[in-house]
Amino acid sequence: MEFNAPAGENLFDKARIVGKSTPRIDGPLKTTGTAPYAYERHDVAPDAAYGWIVGSAIAKGRITSMDVEDARNAPGVIAVIAAPETKPVGTSPYNHAPLFGGREVAHYHQAIACVVAETFEQARAAAHLIRTRYDREAAEYDLAELAPQAPLADGGKALHKRGDFDAAFDAAPVKIDATYHTPDESHAMMEPHATIASWKGEELTLWTSNQMINWGKEALGQILGIAPEKIRLDSPYIGGGFGGKLFIRADAVLAALASKAAQRPVKIALQRPLIFNNTTHRPATIQRVRLGATRDGRITAVGHENWSGNITGTDGEDGTAQTPKLYAGANRMTANYTATLPLPEGNAMRAPGEAAGHLAFEVAMDELAEALAMCPVELRIKNDPGAEVPGDPSKRFSERHLTRCLKEGAERFGWSKRKAKPGQVREGRWLIGMGVAGGYRGAPIQKSAAGVRLSGDGMLIVETDMTDIGTGSYTIIAQTAAETMGLPLDRVRVELGDSRYPVSSGSGGQWGAASSTAGVYAACLVLRRAIGEKLGFDGDSADFTDGAIRANGKSFALNDAGEMSADGEMTYGDFQSDYDLGTYAGHFCEVAVDAYTGETHIRRMLSVCDAGRILNPLSARSQVIGAMVMSAGAALTEELAVDRRFGYFVNHDLAGYEVPVHADIPHQDVVFLDTLDSVISPLKAKGVGELGICGPGSAVANAVYNATGVRVREYPITLDKYLDRLPAIG
Amino acid sequence: MRAFTYQRADSPAAAAQAVAATKGAKFIAGGTNLLDLVKLEIEVPTHLVDVQDLGLDTIEETDEGGLRIGTLVSNTALSAHPRVRRDYAVLTRAIQAGASGQLRNKATTGGNLLQRTRCSYFYDTNLPCNKRQPGSGCAAINGVSRQLGVIGTSDKCIATYPGDMAVAMRLLDAVVETVKSDGMTRSIPVADFHRLWGDTPHIETVLEPGELITAVTLPRPPGGRHFYHKVRDRRSYAFALVSVAAVIQPDGTGRVAFGGVAPKPWRVEAAEALLPHGAKAVVERAFADARPTRDNSFKIPLAERTLAGVIAEARS
Fold it and tell me: Which parts of the sequence belong to the FAD-binding PCMH-type domain (chain B) (predicted)?
């Protein structure tokens, strides 16, 4: 069905299951270790051989020789697949870097060989016997060197102007002009990329860990040169993705090639030290923000330029993404430049664009507030743009409650206790500060399909290729189906992640929750109508509650319908293009900075979120607190360190790439406003999984400034960057 | 990981003999560091001699009023020992600042002294490293070196000894007891145990082939107030940028050693004599010969500021 006009009142407005905090139905499986992840699917391929991937030792150049004889003769080895002996696999539109084959090396740790053996240990040992020689090609790996010559992104179109920014900025009585640097970042999810591949004739099955089943199926068909219909992907449990598993990676490609060569199932997990350079990452950015305002704090000029790089010079990290949406200002300019930078492939990581963009833009707002001697909460409220999108007046906001988020957050956080002048609050050796940031993340919605089936014995089974990447998809889908069909939650079983099921939105871009539940709702409506036709009532107007159906004064039991099934899909009409669909947050943070050592300790964080109906407050809160942690990491600790001579990320393991630990994050609060967005879908719900990484890190950075009076514009804010600017000790 | 042979030893002398007799043999106890390195083929032992059956896992009082710590005492047990907590609190604090609870349960006293550097270039077998492959060069010197050494390093290697426990032991004048393959025993002050890199960064301690650590002895408690301030980018599971171990007496004199800066726990007695003159005097003297890189020159002011915080707390 097509959603072609804003939703009126519907069954979700008097919901009994949707919108209620519900523990994850897959929780017991996960906490008891019985949810099988891709590498642990012993049931599907008990005879799987083990693959081990060898990564390139150089970043750019050519393999001149590869000696695999010793590996082939090593104990237990079944097959060795060597890139120089293999025709390069195809490419799909989803990826930029080549995945396997040939002599050319495009980036460090690109897969160049795969050893298959009877045991994991044999494969690993044999892999170390492969001797490879290279011609190393020199290249420039320093974004700062490449940025000045980088072309505008989107084929030269990524320059957007309204009014006259230059004149307005020149004329502004109060202004700031600051440049910020965000580093390359890694998804660093717990579960490595992993795949078991098995061929039956020309048909290939992959048990894998992938966020986007249908993209994966199509892409793998293009990569291997086979029809997508011959491929099945199954990915029921995923141990985190954050965008790193949106695409087919070397584990899947090499498991498929190796399984063909070995003529039996092969399982491969990317070794942890390979993941950082072999897969994708969030590209580093350089961002210049210029803001001009009247003396009373009305913004008149907004300029935001962004530079990043990527291996093919396309699809960098666009830090300007939120800038057209957040605050008023008649004269505007945003520009996005992408350099060709032969580091490993940059690609989507949780809130691509906005996550890095807020680290610049929302700190620039703090700098402007200080220049105006104005409260940074008030500055943001004063520049609320109203109904029109300030960077694109052809669109209206569907719903936007940023001002409410900021006001409610300020009240709850005790913002009035903040001292405007930095460096004023001291507790013993600790310098205390508070920071605020606004947050915006787009709420894209995608068509999504599902199948629903009544078993005849009181169970409803939902099948869709939607994935649960740790987010709670199983539960919100069950809640949606239970609500729509009038069943208790325990009468619904949800089956996900199998490409044999109807094609869903998948999980990415924080669209999964809103899109997949709308698809399930559509399928349930088709089933309701079919039941009505069978039993003689109008399925749309009937009341489905507690396993009973009431229609036209008559009453039926849902079980009277017997075994029935229906497929449905929710699609979206053009009317949505008149709107900007977004989610908003007010983020607050208090930090303590050691006046001696400069160590920053976060004391408490609060995010007040506006994302329409919250389908499951419990799992939504988990999404937001996880994203806040990731944002704190971006602010304080996380950086892929680039060796600019050799062109690779040096700290390629979880010891060297420092994500926050529990001790870093003592207290977090999340508040959801009771808003509804009738433009997005019948459920009036938007995602939150990426909203939570858009702004908390800026609040951390602003709090560090408020504590110390030292502004660090180069992330992560580590103590070496400001030790010499801390107050003298004595 | 390359295939290796494995045996369990039943006495310290037999263990020492077994390792001395086989080229490429190594001891294994907790394995928290060695197994990681073996999997990455940074270490390629031909034979492992497991010493976990040797006992050597008790902490005993010495006649002099100190403690004798068996080499197989776990980090967890050592840090929790009542006498250690009471009289050698700097040691408890140092141990608990390191690794994670799970690792400390498995890591042993002797093994921890032999923990190898965490330099990223040592860990990547695609890159040159004089420590991993003598003569191949050092990728770290002009590379990413924020975490690496500022003093006691050489033109061949700028790695650090990464641990925390040994910094406290150095401060406490601990002594390492060993047995050699010929059955002879010897005592090595922790001060002399780790070598500076010089031209042979692959040789990290004064131990001879096959020489087995059997115990670490602590002399009588030093009294005073005990501090271990480990500065790092996150609050757990990270190696020190700089750590300061200190014992400060009521009169302002005391001892101080630094971790995360050198191939060994860095204690300069002539520098610590300046403690009553403040952190600047101590650090200027202790780091007089420092040769930091551009990435890690912050470690010297950081050492000073960290020590200043310790001194201020000691006075409070």
Answer: 1-223
